[in-house]
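Structure representation.

___
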Amino acid sequence: MGLQQRFAEYFDFDELGTDLRTEVVAGITTFLTMSYIVIVNPSILAPAIANGPGPDIARSVPEITQMLAVVTLLSAAVATFVMALYAKRPFGQAPGLGLNAFFAFTVVLGLGIPWNTALAAVVVEGIVFIALTAAGAREYVIKLFPEPVKFAVGGGIGLFLAIIGLEAMRVVASDPATYIQFSPVFAQDPVAILSVVGLFLTFALYARGVPGSIVIGILGTSLLGWVASAAGFVAYSLPDDAGYTLADASLAPALGNLTYSAAGYDITPLVGAFIGGFANVDALAFALIVFTFFFVDFFDTAGTLVGVSQVAGFLDENGDLPDIDKPLMADAIGTTAGGILGTSTVTTYIESAAGVEEGGRSGMTALVVAVLFVLSLAVVPLAAAVPIWASHIALVAIAVLMLRNLVDIDWADYTNAVPAGLTILVMPFTYSIAYGIAAGIVSYPIVKAAAGERDDVRLGHWALAGAFVLYFFVRTGGVLGGAL
């Protein structure tokens, strides 16, 4: 039996209506759209480990940055391998944006918690997730999501992806008066112009039914950037307050963005550092930090799995993902492994929607992503070969396609429209999948009860709503700071 046939049997290609070529292209697409984390995650965590409280690992900031890049690749590979071989789902995993910022800027640099204690909190969160997933508790909670919220998650994630993508493409930026605006220097910025050209190239290829249209669009846009750079064009120099967070400032980033050294590949100071983080821990403060990591990761992951599965057609008639316990367990193992290796919470990536839209339906897609993460260890900043602004055109393309799922919502029923609408709107405007889900879940029992439809509301709906209210009190009420 050939290798291709073995893959086909193990990953059920025939049952899922896919093939090896489609899965490989989908895996490459997902990798390209989420590979920015190899550069971004170290840039966020390195200042906290270098300058924050905690053990001194006696390395320079560039060396710590490279160490974290290695750890990012390893944790992403481990988690995604588990997703591929155990859960057999086409979802990529890596340290999550937002959660890494909370780890670095709020917990370590803001509250003064040693960085190895923060890692200990991540490991505890992961172990709790493993236990809850094994007991079926996480699956039970996700099934409690009201139907309009489940159907709205995909559209909300689509808008969320659009904001991330358009910002990275330098098409939109923040504004103190309107919060967001069309780039005031768009016509002067080759990055923005090439991004839009690449986006419409991708749309055109997709409309013609060209296989691999998204990955072709990404690579074609990158090529345009390299050509423009060779021709002497340079990216517009943005002011400090331009409001771009992911967009790099060059047309063709080189592979040498990180400083290479043997010490940078020696990650032993980070691996297992969480063990020392349990010493002299304030129980209340530690519990609150674990709770915050836990809550955000739980609902981010749940939202991503439901939203991307809706695109893939995995959801059943009730809006549930069959055998969701397996991808949840992969996520839990990834978080635990990431904390042990020395990075913040690992989570399932919404960028997986890019690969799914390319036809990825099985764990083979995730296997390709994991292998590419491993291969990238040979050249740590390999992902920088594709500019962030080029890779993120995929997010905008996918965002447009994800909006089509909103037709499943019964908009004529106000008690469905309110939680669905809030879920969709709050996600992009708060930059959080979890907050969008929270808005939908909190509003659902309220409007249902007000409309006299109490039979549609279960005790679990009120319990979830109460849990979100408690979370927001802990997260925004100064409770964390007051516990220290």
